[in-house]
Amino acid sequence: MRSTSPEGPAQVRYHLRMRFFATTAEAAPAPPLRDRNEIPDRFKWNLSHIFPDWTRWQAAYDDLETKIAAYAALQGSLAKGPKTLLAAMKLSDEIGQVTYKVWYFASLKHDEDQRDNQINARRQQVQILFAKASQASAWFNPELLQIPLPTVQQWMTANPELGVYRFALEDLYRQQEHVLDDKGEHLLSLSSRFSSSPHDAFSALSTADIKHPTIRLSTGDVTLTYGQYRAILATNRNQADRATAFTEYHKLFTTNVNTYAALYNGVLQRDWFLAQARDYRSTLEAALHGNNIPPAVVENLIEATKAGTEPLRRYHRLRKRVLDLKTYHTFDTTIPLVDFDRKYPYDQVLEWLAASVAPLGQEYQRELRDTLRGDWVDVYENPGKRSGAYSAPVYGVHPYMLLNYNDTLDAVFTLAHEMGHSMHTLLASAHQPFVYAAYTIFVAEVPSTLSEALFLDYMLDRATDDRERIVLLQHAIDAIVGTFYTQVMFADYELQAHRLVEEGRPVTGDTLSDIYLTLLKAYHGDALDYDELSRVTWARIPHFFSTPYYVYQYATCYASSAELMKHLRSADPQQRAAAVERYVTLLKSGGSDHPMPLLQRAGVDLGTPEPVRAVVDQFDRLVTQLEDAIRNLS
Ligand SMILES: [Zn+2]
Questions:
Q1: How close is the Cα of 418 to the center of ligand 1, in Å?
Q2: What's the gap in Å between 231 CA and the centre of ligand 1?
Q3: How far is the CA of 395 from the centre of ligand 1 (A)?
Q4: Which of 73, 195, 270, 566 lies 20 to 30 A from 415 at CA?
Q5: 535: nearest Cα among 513, 508, 518
Q6: DSSP conformation letters of 286-325
Q7: Does residue 258 surpass a pLDDT of 70?
Q8: Contact 561, 359 (CB under 8 A)
Q9: Contact by Cβ (8 Å): 338, 475
Q10: First CA to last CA across the chain, in angstroms?
């Protein structure tokens, strides 16, 4: 939800790379860790761009506290007229801007070395202040919504400074349609205390309480944690070992399948309760209303994807042949086709990345070089540093990127991905007022995936070694399988499961497992040999229990990005130039409108099957290229 109140930690977002099928456990043995002070400065971010020291940070923190108190004191003033409303909006912006700096300075420092308790304490101090800020601003929405919308619209027309906030304010009124009266809202807020129970119980059952078995493989005995399970599937070339790992891992879930089904039923019933309480026709409609996305977008996504599964099957048939397997199962889908361990030194990669965005024009390229500057990126791992990678949008300063760069191809694509987020931040901040500088997740993964796609093109053009080509192509193909096909299948599953409760039908372990297996078959046809245990896969997907109707956004972002790439690759230079212009405008637009119209203006209509077809065509081409590369190799 768009918030005009000071930002809390939940709203201050990092853009993390999607890593559904990450297999960190099997990564090559890491080089010995250097202490942070042994790493040259040019590979470490410089946080003095935010504050020169903790004294200045404390001064800003104190200033923030004063401003929050001043905001609370504005309560009761809004109806007086446009001037007082404008004053509240401006103060909210000021608070938001200081918040970014105060939060990220502490948070990024903390991520440099999470073992430092003093810094962690300061970070928590900010979180406590955020909680206070959200209480101090809770009056704003109800008080605003007491004023009739036409009155506020009149004020905005007469007062251009207030007019800047038109989209933000009108959206609060739009969201108001499903807000209840005080008594109703109070009842719903009481229910929120137990609405997370199904997920809490799922976490306990699937992590804290799970007994990981020790299994015997041809390579020796292994304790089968999730990380180990993924590692075996991604690295162990013995199919019997993979089958054993798969069987033992899924038995953990069949043993408790009725409990998982009861917990998932809790999630479904809660979603349907909240949707009905707020007068939505379906759980899907309720989930999409915040971003103003029509439910038809998800239904259309599912339908168009189901019609485009043939290239996916072709890819798996190719894998079966290349891997020389008699039967081909879900546990055979992630093992690499060839072994290849080229190293990609960071300095070299920076040049390639900058060159890869040439299709977006010189201005974009120039600005991109900024996002890769030494003092904006924290490159290497050091003891205590946060794992993974992200781009942090520090408004009023610039984006910072945290990496744990280890010279692998995966690390290179991670950097390309985060670079896309950073460019989005850079352009949105430069071209939007503060209130619209942040963008929604629905749009966020478009530039990151597009950035990866451009980089892939660049690398494929230059790859001279067939093995490297195969690895690059497989990387790109697996990304589409993981972030597109699988996520649409998951969205399909969630939709069907929610419909069970909407239609008053029973939810049991069997009904859920039947839905899952039917879907698996609908997507993979005769390209897979099916194992009875695959039916229970739904029980081990944390997203289903934690954030229903969330993963489809990865698929719509991927489809949008594929459609944009299609236009950017157009043979006609004029059309190409127009596509670049539209794409850069999308990035500059930040969160100044709902995601659908923003994407529409960029040439992507998610209401049509076109974007999905763009992914399917792209996938098909990549599989053909992979076939060629494999043929050349043999
Ligand atoms: Zn991302």
A1: 6
A2: 23
A3: 18
A4: 566
A5: 513
A6: HHHHTTT--THHHHHHHHHHHTT-HHHHHHHHHHHHHTT-
A7: yes
A8: no
A9: no
A10: 54
Cβ-based burial of 393 (10 A; exposed 0-12, middle 13-18, buried ≥19): buried
| Residue 305: both structure tokens together | 């994807």
Indicate the SS3 state at residue 98.
Answer: helix
CA quadruple 356, 360, 362, 366: dihedral sign: negative
Domains of the chain: 44-177 (1.20.140.70)
> Which DSSP symbol is given to 135?
H
The residue ranking higher by pLDDT, 16 or 415, is 415
The amino acid at residue 288 is L
The amino acid occupying position 558 is Y
Please report the beta strands in 333-448, taking only residues with DSSP state E, as ranges in sequence order: 377-378, 390-394, 398-402
As given in the structure block, the two tokens for residue 572 are 């006609």
Contacts of 404 (CB under 8 A, 6+ apart): 380, 381, 385, 387, 388, 389, 411
* Pairwise CA distance, residues 238 & 257, whole Å: 29
Calculate how far, in angstroms, residue 178's C-alpha sits from the geometric centre of ligand 1: 31
Q: Which of 550, 542, 548 is nearest to 253 (CA)?
A: 542
Q: Which of 616, 580, 97 is nearest to 365 (CA)?
A: 580
What whole-number distance in Å separates Cα of residue 333 and Cα of residue 590?
A: 37
Torsion of CA 197, 202, 208, 213, to 10 degrees: 160
Average pLDDT estimate for 262-275: 97
Query: Which residues share a beta bridge with 399?
Result: 393
**C-alpha 15 – ligand 1 centre gap (Å):** 5
- Give pTM, 2 decimals: 0.90
Q: What is the DSSP letter of 17?
A: P
Q: In this structure, how many other beta carbons lie within 10 angstroms of the beta carbon of residue 71?
A: 22
Please report where in the chains the tokens 């400065």 appear, as a residue. Answer: 41
Active-site residues: which are they?
Answer: 418
* Among the ranges given (3-17, 281-295, 383-397), the one the predictor scored with the smallest mean pLDDT: 3-17
Strand partners, 217: 220
User: Burial of 298 by CB count in 10 Å (0-12 exposed, 13-18 middle, 19+ buried)?
Assistant: buried
CA 419 to ligand 1 center in whole angstroms = 9
Exposed/middle/buried for 366, CB within 10 Å: 0-12, 13-18, 19+?
exposed
**Structure confidence by residue, pLDDT tens digits, 331-383:** 999 999 998 888 999 999 999 999 999 999 999 999 999 899 889 999 999 99
- Model pLDDT, residue 441: 87
**Chain-centre distance for alpha carbon 497:** 23
Q: How remote is the CA of residue 441 from the centroid of ligand 1, in Å? A: 9
Q: 272 alpha carbon to ligand 1 midpoint, in Å?
A: 30
pLDDT for position 316: 98
**Closest listed residue to residue 334, CA positions, set 265, 235, 440, 472:** 235
Closest CA to 175 of 149, 150, 154: 149
Joined together, the tokens standing for residue 327 give: 């039967």
CA of 389 to the centre of ligand 1 (A): 9
Residue 23 has which token pair?
């297999």
